[in-house]
């Protein structure tokens, strides 16, 4: 906190003066800073204590200091999404940002992160569905219409080489994979040459698997994508810690929009399903818990709520895709287990390659922070399971490439 305190104090003073139409002088005020949740960013609640001003319009703000992940984030798209959600009261107002190092936003009074006991609450799921549909309406999704019904190779090439917006292919292949290769090479060298792990068969075997998947990442992503698909703006990172609810659960808000980009329609509810197998708030190493039971994802309540979301998308967007002759057929396909599992695998691939960018040998060796290496392995286990038990049954060629 000390690294950022002076900057936060200076910038917060400007923000509070602007929002409240006041002038803060020396000795009239103080700031209270409280560090909130966050893996790759520093997120603070800043409270203005000013006895002289009893009727402050705003006395709390949230101050986010962007972390190492900023190199991969399209901040313009993130800001645009946050504005759209704020307009519909599904997110906080953004007061100021430099798009590179920090953002100041509204502090949402009376909201807390979702209690894990309520993660399957039907009202929460319904409100999340509304947020996902709002996301799908954001940005120029219409330009992807021409690829509906075309071989996915044409869409993949467009996403990788010609699309001017950030999408799941450019985000994972051009940004995350490129940087991960550098980080992983250094990490692998230290693991293999260091005394602690050079004879650890499990670590070395997992390391080889990670290297194999990263080297062939582009081909694996292509194989996982379904043959028939619709692309729209997606949140991509919905899990209970990114869901805020008020005291009586009358309002549900989705936060943390850093990885919003164009992706498969349905990937958000699929990602939420997977995240219910993880708990990221553990306070000791590996700093998360993982319930390794992927078969749960095909039963209640996971798959039915995925289908319900696809049905809702089909109804809401039918008029917008009136010029797509086989839209109804594609929606029917998107309600299948095959499409569902591919959405699950696409999400896992994103978080697999993301986690590799944060590998740190010393922290892994002394178990002092979040275990990004094992987190990557757990994400791979999801993809292995899907390839072997689901996608592989459809296509032996795909199966052989993924395992």
Summarize this entry quickly:
The chain is of the alpha+beta class.
Strand content: 5-15%
Helix-and-strand structural type: alpha+beta
The N- and C-terminal alpha carbons lie at a distance of 44 Å
The biggest beta sheet reads: 5 strands, antiparallel
* Overall body shape: globular
Mean pLDDT: 90
The CATH topology of the largest domain is Aminoglycoside 3'-phosphotransferase, Chain: A, domain 2
CATH architecture of the largest domain: Alpha-Beta Complex
Residues in helix, %: 40-55%
> Looking across the biggest beta sheet, what order are the strands in?
1-2-3-5-4
Question: What is the fold's blueprint, element by element?
Answer:
Elements: H1 2-20, E1 30-35, E2 42-49, E3 60-65, H2 75-87, E4 94-97, E5 102-106, E6 111-113, H3 122-137, H4 152-161, H5 168-193, H6 201-215, H7 217-224, E7 231-234, E8 243-246, E9 252-254, E10 261-264, H8 267-275, E11 278-279, E12 289-290, H9 302-317, H10 327-334, H11 337-356, H12 361-366, H13 372-394, H14 396-402
Antiparallel strand pairs: 1-2, 2-3, 3-5, 4-5, 6-8, 7-10, 8-9, 11-12
Helix pairs in contact: 4-5, 5-6, 5-11, 8-11, 9-10, 11-13, 13-14
Description:
This protein is α+β, with helices and mostly antiparallel strands. The protein is built from 14 helices and twelve strands. The radius of gyration is 22 Å and the shape is globular. The strands form four sheets. A five-stranded antiparallel sheet has the order 1-2-3-5-4, sandwiched between helices. A three-stranded antiparallel sheet has the order 6-8-9. It has a two-stranded antiparallel ribbon with strand order 7-10. A hairpin with a 4-residue loop joins strand 4 (about 95) and strand 5 (about 100-105). It has two domains: about 1-65 and about 95-105, Phosphorylase Kinase, domain 1 (2-Layer Sandwich), CATH 3.30.200; about 110-400, Aminoglycoside phosphotransferase (APH), C-terminal lobe (Aminoglycoside 3'-phosphotransferase, Chain: A, domain 2), CATH 3.90.1200. Helices cover about 50% and strands about 15% of the residues.
């Amino acid at each position: 906190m000390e690294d950022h305190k002076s900057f936060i104090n200076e910038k917060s003073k400007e923000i509070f003066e602007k929002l409240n139409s006041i002038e803060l002088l020396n000795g009239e005020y103080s700031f209270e800073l409280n560090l909130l949740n966050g893996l790759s960013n520093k997120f603070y609640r800043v409270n203005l204590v000013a006895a002289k001003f009893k009727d402050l319009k705003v006395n709390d703000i949230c101050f986010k200091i962007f972390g190492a992940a900023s190199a991969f984030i399209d901040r313009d798209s993130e800001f645009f999404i946050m504005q759209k959600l704020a307009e519909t009261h599904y997110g906080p107002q953004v007061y100021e940002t430099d798009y590179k190092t920090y953002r100041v936003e509204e502090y949402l009074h009376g909201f807390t992160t979702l209690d894990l006991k309520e993660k399957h609450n039907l009202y929460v799921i319904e409100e999340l569905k509304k947020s996902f549909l709002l996301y799908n309406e954001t940005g120029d999704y219409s330009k992807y219409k021409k690829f509906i019904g075309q071989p996915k190779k044409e869409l993949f090439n467009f996403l990788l080489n010609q699309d001017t917006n950030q999408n799941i292919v450019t985000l994972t292949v051009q940004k995350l994979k490129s940087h991960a290769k550098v980080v992983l090479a250094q990490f692998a060298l230290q693991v293999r040459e260091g005394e602690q792990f050079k004879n650890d068969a499990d670590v070395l075997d997992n390391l080889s698997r990670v290297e194999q998947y990263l080297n062939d990442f582009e081909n694996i992503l292509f194989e996982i994508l379904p043959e028939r698909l619709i692309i729209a703006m997606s949140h991509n990172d919905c899990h209970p810690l990114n869901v805020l609810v008020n005291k009586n659960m009358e309002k549900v808000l989705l936060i943390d929009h850093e990885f919003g980009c164009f992706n498969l329609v349905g990937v958000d509810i699929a990602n939420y399903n997977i995240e219910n197998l993880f708990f990221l708030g553990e306070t000791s190493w590996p700093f998360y818990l993982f319930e390794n039971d992927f078969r749960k994802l095909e039963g209640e309540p996971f798959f039915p709520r995925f289908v319900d979301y696809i049905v809702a998308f089909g109804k809401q967007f039918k008029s917008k895709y009136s010029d797509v002759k086989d839209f109804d057929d594609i929606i029917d396909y998107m309600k299948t287990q095959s499409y569902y599992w591919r959405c699950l695998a696409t999400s896992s691939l994103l978080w697999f390659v993301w986690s590799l960018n944060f590998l740190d040998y010393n922290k892994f060796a002394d178990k002092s922070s979040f275990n990004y290496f094992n987190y990557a392995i757990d994400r791979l286990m999801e993809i292995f399971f899907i390839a072997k038990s689901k996608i592989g049954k459809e296509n032996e060629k795909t199966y052989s490439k993924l395992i």
